[in-house]
UniProtKB/TrEMBL annotation:
It comes from the Bacteria. Its cofactor is Mg(2+). This is Polyprenyl synthetase family protein. Residues 40-63 are annotated as: Disordered. Belongs to the FPP/GGPP synthase family. It comes from Deinococcus aluminii. PANTHER family: ALL TRANS-POLYPRENYL-DIPHOSPHATE SYNTHASE PDSS1, GERANYLGERANYL PYROPHOSPHATE SYNTHASE. Pfam families: polyprenyl_synt. CDD domains: Trans_IPPS_HT (cd00685). Keywords: Magnesium, Metal-binding, Transferase. Gene3D superfamilies: Farnesyl Diphosphate Synthase.
Length: 396
């Protein structure tokens, strides 16, 4: 069992947060408007970058940036997280001759975010023993970029489905440019990642893994609608939905470096398990906070899942108990009656459903940490282990 307790102390990248990165969907489906950007805006933003066209594998070593240090007493151990070099590579990959596509790509880079999934990829590669001076490190950067592109493409599509107003503090792309431009820009990102994968070592295996993950993401999104339509309120569909929507991409982020580096199968499977269990724990915590969290800490109202007819884990536990019929009625009317959300929240807190969910989050988190025992001890392994541990007490 992994028992190390890293002290992640310094770093100026958002990726140091490593929390609060799961997006959630809903059932809205509307045609948005279109806001015309200023002429030449993409070229102005691009500045001296210039150029466009097909991305090419990195041919030279780029010194890593975005170091953070562990061991507060000595500062002797350093890890590399996605930083300026990663952002520059992402910007390069997203270049396009088409201004609207360039604008959406530029917004993706400028908005930043915690880059949680690329961070997992960086840490997994280092936990497998790869150093940033290794000539294969640029391929890890490209692999992390591919993970982020798959994630970002799914968000462009999700925002339209969710009828979202904003993304990372900016106006959602489909509201600004319209449905077609937003969806096709997401498809453009998918084409770019395929081009990158084709030039990598183990390209065929990596392409297959990315394709399978993309399928799971799509299936999870559609299954969510199906579960609500058929009122399939049970554990198995719920796990399938959150695996597709959240855990599958973390599985890929963690295990893709093992494919790239042709690591032993036992280590690849360990990283698959780590990513899956970490992702499930994260989404379960997100779902619990949506019902039983503190609105001031979350910065948004609770009960969003109930209003969308989603039976998350604490609600499923309530359906098993003496108040099951009452909770089912709330789900079926999508918490439309006054007091519905407050009532289900009260039941979750008083009938043990919230605590049972916390126990399951702890169990999944421990499974994720335990899986890492198949990797050699290292600071990177400890940093990976810290991620699911933090889920246990996350409050926003």
């Amino acid at each position: 069992m992994v028992t190390g307790k890293p002290a992640i102390l310094e770093g100026d990248q958002d990726s140091l947060g490593l929390l609060g990165f799961a997006e959630k969907g809903n059932d809205a489906f509307h045609c948005p408007g279109f806001t015309m950007p200023a002429k030449g805006e993409a070229r102005d933003k691009a500045g001296a970058r210039g150029g466009s066209g097909t991305p090419t594998p990195t041919s030279r070593y780029v010194p890593p940036t975005g170091l953070f240090y562990t061991d507060g007493m000595t500062g002797v151990a350093a890890l590399t997280l996605p930083g300026a070099a990663f952002e520059a590579r992402l910007r390069e990959v997203l270049r396009s001759k088409v201004e609207f596509i360039e604008l959406i790509g530029e917004d993706l880079v400028a908005a930043g975010g915690k880059r949680a999934r690329p961070t997992v990829t960086f840490l997994a590669a280092q936990a497998l023993g790869l150093g940033t001076q290794d000539p294969r490190w640029p391929a890890v950067t490209d692999l992390a970029a591919c993970v982020e592109l798959l994630h970002s493409a799914s968000l462009l599509h999700d925002d339209l489905i969710d009828d979202a107003d904003t993304r990372r503090g900016q106006q959602a792309a489909f509201r600004r440019f319209g449905n077609v431009v937003s969806v096709m820009s997401g498809d453009f990102m998918l084409s770019r990642l395929l081009t990158l994968l084709a030039g990598m070592p183990q390209g065929a295996a990596l392409t297959r893994a990315f394709g399978e993950t993309a399928s799971l993401i799509c299936e999870g999104e559609v299954l969510q609608f199906q579960v609500a339509a058929y009122a399939e309120y049970s554990l198995q569909p719920y796990l399938a939905v959150i695996h597709g929507k959240t855990a599958a991409l973390l599985e890929l982020a963690a295990s893709a470096p093992a494919l790239l580096l042709d690591a032993p199968e036992t280590q690849r499977e360990a990283l698959v398990t780590f990513g899956r269990e970490y992702g499930l724990a994260f989404q379960m915590q997100d779902d619990l906070l949506d019902l039983a969290g503190d609105e001031a800490a979350l910065g948004k109202p609770v009960g969003g899942d109930l209003r969308e007819g989603k039976a998350t884990l604490p609600v499923l536990y309530l359906l098993e108990g003496s108040h099951g019929a009452e909770v089912r009625e709330v789900l079926e009317r999508r918490a439309a009656a006054p007091g519905d959300v407050a009532r289900v929240r009260e039941l979750a807190l008083t009938q043990g459903a919230a605590e049972r969910t916390r126990q399951e989050i702890r169990r999944r988190s421990h499974l994720a940490v335990d899986a890492l025992a198949a990797l050699p001890p290292s600071t990177a392994r400890d940093a990976l282990a810290a991620l699911p541990r933090r889920e246990i007490g996350r409050t926003r």
